[in-house]
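Technical note accompanying the year-one report. For the benefit of new consortium partners, we illustrate the data format agreed upon in the data management plan: each record pairs a sequence with a structure-token string. No post-processing was applied to the example shown here.
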Amino acid sequence: IEVQGDSMEPEIKSGALVLGEAVLKDDIKYESGGVFAIIYGNSRFVVKRVKTNEITTLGTLTLWSDNEKYGHITVPANEIHCMWKINMKVAEPVR
């Protein structure tokens, strides 16, 4: 997956290539403590950090940017279409 934008900097730079592993739909409620690529809502695609998972208690998943100026997004669980756990950076542009 090619990451676009600076919302995950400094950890992941814009233009970085990352490798992700698909998360089964039934297992999304158990995932936390990492960076994930997620498709939700009306085909919105983001790469964000999941610090804690509140799907079983609140029915939502909060997606955090590493770059503090972007904050977070709270997504209802029923709007999450696909999710991949990012395992490693394959390549990253030099600046």
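Partners are asked to follow this layout when depositing records. The beta strands are 17-22, 34-40, 44-50, 53-54, 60-64, 72-76, 80-91.
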